[in-house]
Amino acid sequence: MSADTRYRGYDVLDKRDTPSWDAVTRAVIDERLTAADHLPQVATGAAWRVLRALCTCIVPQPADRPAVPLAALLDRRLAANRGDGFRDARLPPLREAWRIGLDALDAESRHGHGRGFADLDDEARIDLLHRVQHGACADPAWRGMPPALFFSHRVLPDLLSAYYAHPQAWSEIGFGGPANPRGYVRMVANRRDPWEPVEARPGEEARAYRENRRVR
Amino acid sequence: MCADARERPRGAHGRAPDVFRRGGWVPMREYDDRDAVDFAIVGTGAGGATLACRLAELGFRVVAFDAGAWWRPLEEFASDEEHQAKLYWTDDRLCDGADPVRLGSNNSGKAVGGSTVHFAMVSLRFRPEWFKARSQLGYGADWPLDWREMWRYYARVERALRIAGPVRYPWGPHRGRYPYRAHELNEAALVLARGAEALGIRWTPTPLATLSAPRGPAHPCVYRGFCVSGCATNAKQSALVTWIPRALAAGAEIRDLAMVGRVAVDGADRATGVEYLREGRWRFQRARNVVVAGYAVETPRLLLLSATGRHPQGLANSSGLLGRYFTVHANQAVWGTMDDEIRSYKGPPSLAITEHWNYADEGKDFFGGYCYMSQGPLPVVWAVTQGGRGLWGKPLRAEMQKYNHQAGLKIVGETLPQADNRVTLADTKDAYGLPVARVTHAYCDNDRRLIAHSMDFMSRALAAAGARDLWRETDDTCHMAGTARMGDDPHCSVVDADCRSWDIRNLWICDGSVFPTVGGVNPSLTIQALALRTADRIAALAGRGEL
Fold this sequence. Notes:
The complex is a heterodimer.
Chain A: H1 23-32, H2 46-58, H3 70-80, E1 87-88, H4 94-113, H5 122-133, H6 147-163, H7 167-173, H8 205-213
Helix pairs in contact in A: 2-4, 3-6, 4-6, 5-6
Chain B: E1 15-17, E2 25-27, E3 37-42, H1 48-57, E4 62-65, H2 73-76, E5 94-96, H3 133-137, H4 147-160, H5 187-199, E6 204-205, H6 243-249, E7 253-255, E8 259-265, E9 271-278, E10 281-292, H7 295-305, E11 327-330, E12 333-337, E13 352-354, H8 356-359, E14 370-374, H9 379-388, H10 393-400, E15 406-414, E16 422-429, E17 435-440, H11 445-464, E18 468-473, E19 477-481, E20 507-509, H12 524-543
Parallel strand pairs in B: 3-4, 3-10, 4-7, 5-17, 10-20
Antiparallel strand pairs in B: 1-2, 6-13, 8-9, 9-10, 11-15, 11-19, 12-15, 12-18, 13-14, 14-15, 16-17
Helix pairs in contact in B: 1-6, 1-12, 4-12, 5-11
């Protein structure tokens, strides 16, 4: 587990075969973990490169562990066309919004830097995304879709919800995770059940790591 | 695992899923499409399921329809936020206006049991004066009901759902103790308590529709914390595990995966039945009475879709008010970081509440009230909330590292009914080929003053409880109401006090759409209380030959 977490040594998947996980939860999460092998179906070709670059900016991931396949998780959702139950009337439907948005990001990049979004360095990508977030761009490739709205209503919720639905993200933030049928018992401050992670307090990282390796 | 509940109907061939036994079935009575049943009920949530149960128990022949699936919670509800989106109404809807609402997860269900399958279980009564908000408090509209009558129905719902709550409720007229003991408080709830006590206001354990002691085959809540993703243990007293099994036992038929697209009326302005799509085929169920219980977006949508030559503006709409007065609850929050580990993912999300600002009228520069509750967001909801503040990249990751230390207070705040907030039909069509709903919403100045008051007060409370780095979640809403308001004047309302259409006397509406005002509390208990009252009124009218 990476250095930017307070829960080093904790892996929520270690509880897969304990009374904290029921059969349906195991099946659902097993399926999610196959996203690493997913081949893009909706965001293909140039759009796939843009999407992967966008993902590294929205949720930068540490280099010392396998990355959550965020672009693949989003593309799977787009392939299944899983909507939210509403959309702001200024935005087109899910897939179309992403198609236009990824294309427009690339167009903005070519316009401003002479190369595609995926070929920019981190700093230039982040600058460009700040402009999108604040609506300070106007390439015709947006085709009337407000860039700021695309960013606030599609980019952030879609990517953040995909990333934090992955067990690796749960481990990073110290979420106890699924708990059926065992549930949770110790409800008050600074108490944890033995099947919850230990937060490393300063100076106690080694002990926390050892205990987290035993969390089941 | 069993076949997907969304592939083919489960309520069929004389049986229905037994939600209490894995793989089990219970017998279900069935009616022929050509058999004019006493009641065809559209929707099986807090309104429709409750009414279906009581009407069947009173001896009426009932068929209830739901567009969603009939789930088996013990086998099919994963402990997973993303997967459980299968419980939400995720068909497209368009949102516009100055303050567009967000629908889906937070306020719409598509399953037998409706959104009670994923609601937060908060079970509150209205403040008595809210039933006469216009004449007693000077805003909104009066309900055509007396609070004392509603008080008796509230108590009946609380008993039926074994609500877990305190012995003495701190606000309003006497209500007796709750049937089941209050739940243990988690640390997020204790943060609310400390803040309230520091500021000198009262608080209480939240009355919740989840078991604190065994009930039949269901054991008490195990505090797994996935309540708003659906309860996998049946501790949650949703319509799916309470009213629906009772309705079946009393002889009602429930049709899952049955999308009603039109209510039919004859030339004498009587409803004759419903057109519905099931297993790929449009069918027609004859009925002597039709009840629409699809909640504040789908109910007006269905009645607008049912327009005829005699009713060109939609059924039950001679007042022109159908779809108007779409009213939500403000759902803003203040969040902060605690030195302690809070781990608010444990237990039901809202274990403590204060209704102080629902009952206190002094010191307000706005009409209406609000309660606020402790919170327990799981990672996906929490990350999207961070995105809502505009965070991404490294600042987002840093904030997410504080997940186990965050605590928050969130309002259910009354907004004022406004005629221009409304549900209409859009040009876009859904998978059934029906025009989708367009939902237009804007706050008014009074709403903004209420929100500002609540955020200032909650900031003080959270700081007094020891939180640092406070920030405000400014744009969330929850619950919906008002689009088929009840009243005692046919020109100013869609239904009468019995939830009966003024225009089409054998058409009834039984959900939150009938609320003229929303108060500052979650609506499910009031919807169920109204459904019980409507059932009693129908029985009384039938006894007099006035149906």
